[in-house]
């Protein structure tokens, strides 16, 4: 690579962590959390709250999150804000050093939680400059290393960043999803009361394919009135049908939908053929689109944050056509809206860049959205989607 020589200022005094980019750029900072190094994609998230939920969203497998909000870690960590596999995101980049937690829900301190979960943190960087870099150059492949003694073999770290193949073509769902069937019971969480457990009697049965799901999706399905059974990413059509579902849910998850689709898309196609009601979120939406004959593509920088405006498009919305939902997002791939075949309509689009944010299959109860109606973190404008899906099940 022509631009791959290492280019950096000398290591500043007190630097105990470093980001080494595949293109040779180097950024120094102060390490916290786990010691060691890891390689992955660096993306940015603009949410101002919910860092623990972000760091435990399994869709971030093989990624580092650069938080654009400067104060991260100051409400500590707790046992309730864990969304999925704790080891999913590799680590994070933050502007300010993490202070002691100050919050009535805090059960632990963020750096200690990061260390316990094997995540590397780097603080004291200009995260605005880093975000601009990602916006201009696209999400880069990097190594982030943390050594309390400040000893780094930059050439070796650079070689590691260059040698990482990138997320395109990578199936990561199997590494973060459940490996066996689980009956899900918890509903929504309320302060002082914890999780609601309404019981499954008489409820429509949703079988949820887990590609690296956020738990709040299952809680939201329960809140909307469903009985939920979770099956692994590689569940077969027969595995799913043996549970006698009234509807099938396709979860979010990490990696390239085209790679995950190799085993999941044929199952989804068969479910569509028998008119099974289907609802997909994020990776699940992408795989529903692939099963329906559309294509997905890697985005330049992706969408990650809790304030992304999404507009309802199409006359099927009636009076609410054009309405804008403020949504939570985390995706680096997208459905190519120009490839939707006949019989698949676009239902939502991003007001940031016009990318596809929702589809529905005409004549079937099958739809998907690219964003996260379960929030965690983020606004709850789009909870109606869970009610629509569960409400239409018989
Ligand atoms: N949150 C998700 O499900 C992400 C889907 C997919 N891995 C992407 O980055 O686009």
TrEMBL record:
SMART domains: CPSase_sm_chain (SM01097). Residues 15-145 form the Carbamoyl-phosphate synthase small subunit N-terminal domain. Pathway: Amino-acid biosynthesis; L-arginine biosynthesis; carbamoyl phosphate from bicarbonate: step 1/1; Pyrimidine metabolism; UMP biosynthesis via de novo pathway; (S)-dihydroorotate from bicarbonate: step 1/3. GO terms for molecular function: ATP binding; carbamoyl-phosphate synthase (glutamine-hydrolyzing) activity; glutaminase activity. Pfam families: CPSase_sm_chain, GATase. It is an enzyme of class 6 (ligase). Gene3D superfamilies: 3.40.50.880, Carbamoyl-phosphate synthase small subunit, N-terminal domain (3.50.30.20). Keywords: Amino-acid biosynthesis, Arginine biosynthesis, ATP-binding, Glutamine amidotransferase, Ligase, Nucleotide-binding, Pyrimidine biosynthesis. InterPro entries: Anth_synth/Amidotransfase, CarbamoylP_synth_ssu, CarbamoylP_synth_ssu_N, CarbP_synth_ssu_N_sf, Class_I_gatase-like, CPSase_GATase1, GATASE. Residues 1-204 are annotated as: CPSase. One of its GO terms (biological process) is 'de novo' pyrimidine nucleobase biosynthetic process. The active site is at 282 (nucleophile), 372, 374. Its EC number is 6.3.5.5. It catalyses: hydrogencarbonate + L-glutamine + 2 ATP + H2O = carbamoyl phosphate + L-glutamate + 2 ADP + phosphate + 2 H(+); L-glutamine + H2O = L-glutamate + NH4(+). L-glutamine binds at residues 59, 253, 255, 283, 286, 330, 332-333. Composed of two chains; the small (or glutamine) chain promotes the hydrolysis of glutamine to ammonia, which is used by the large (or ammonia) chain to synthesize carbamoyl phosphate. Tetramer of heterodimers (alpha,beta)4. Small subunit of the glutamine-dependent carbamoyl phosphate synthetase (CPSase). CPSase catalyzes the formation of carbamoyl phosphate from the ammonia moiety of glutamine, carbonate, and phosphate donated by ATP, constituting the first step of 2 biosynthetic pathways, one leading to arginine and/or urea and the other to pyrimidine nucleotides. The small subunit (glutamine amidotransferase) binds and cleaves glutamine to supply the large subunit with the substrate ammonia. Belongs to the CarA family. This is Carbamoyl phosphate synthase small chain. The lineage of its organism: Bacteria, Pseudomonadati, Pseudomonadota, Alphaproteobacteria, Sphingomonadales. The gene is carA.
């Amino acid at each position: 690579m022509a631009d791959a020589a290492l280019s950096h200022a000398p290591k500043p005094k007190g630097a105990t962590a470093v980001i080494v980019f595949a293109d040779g750029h180097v950024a120094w900072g102060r390490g916290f959390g786990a010691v060691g190094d890891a390689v992955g994609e660096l993306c940015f998230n603009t949410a101002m709250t919910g860092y623990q939920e972000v760091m435990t969203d399994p869709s971030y497998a093989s990624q580092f999150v650069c938080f654009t909000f400067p104060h991260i870690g100051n409400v500590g960590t707790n046992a309730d804000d864990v969304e999925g596999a704790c080891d999913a995101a590799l680590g994070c980049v933050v502007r300010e050093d993490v202070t002691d937690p100050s919050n009535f829900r805090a059960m632990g301190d963020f750096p200690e939680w990061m260390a316990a979960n094997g995540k590397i943190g780097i603080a004291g960087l200009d995260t605005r400059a880093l975000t601009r870099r990602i916006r201009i150059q696209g999400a880069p492949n990097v190594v982030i290393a943390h050594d309390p003694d400040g000893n780094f073999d930059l050439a070796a770290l650079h070689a590691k960043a260059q040698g990482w193949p990138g997320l395109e073509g990578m199936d990561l769902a199997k590494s973060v999803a459940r490996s066996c069937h689980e009956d899900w019971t918890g509903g929504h969480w309320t302060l002082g009361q914890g999780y609601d457990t309404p019981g499954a009697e008489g409820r429509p049965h949703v079988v949820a394919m887990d590609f690296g799901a956020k738990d709040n999706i299952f809680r939201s399905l329960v809140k909307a009135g469903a009985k939920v059974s979770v099956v692994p990413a590689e569940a077969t059509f027969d595995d799913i049908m043996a549970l006698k579902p009234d509807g099938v849910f396709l979860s979010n998850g990490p990696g390239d939908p085209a790679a995950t689709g190799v085993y999941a898309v044929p199952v989804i196609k068969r479910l569509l053929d028998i008119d099974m009601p289907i609802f997909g979120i994020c990776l699940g939406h992408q795989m529903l689109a692939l099963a329906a004959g559309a294509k997905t593509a890697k985005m330049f920088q992706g969408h990650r944050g809790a304030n992304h405006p999404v507009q309802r498009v199409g006359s099927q919305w009636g009076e609410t056509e054009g309405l804008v939902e403020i949504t939570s997002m985390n995706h680096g791939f997208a459905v190519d809206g120009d490839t939707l075949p006949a019989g698949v309509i676009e239902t939502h689009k991003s007001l940031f860049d016009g990318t596809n944010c929702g589809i529905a299959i005409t004549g079937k109860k099958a739809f998907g959205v690219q964003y996260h109606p379960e929030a965690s973190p983020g606004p709850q404008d789009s909870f109606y989607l869970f009610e629509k899906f569960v409400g239409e099940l018989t």
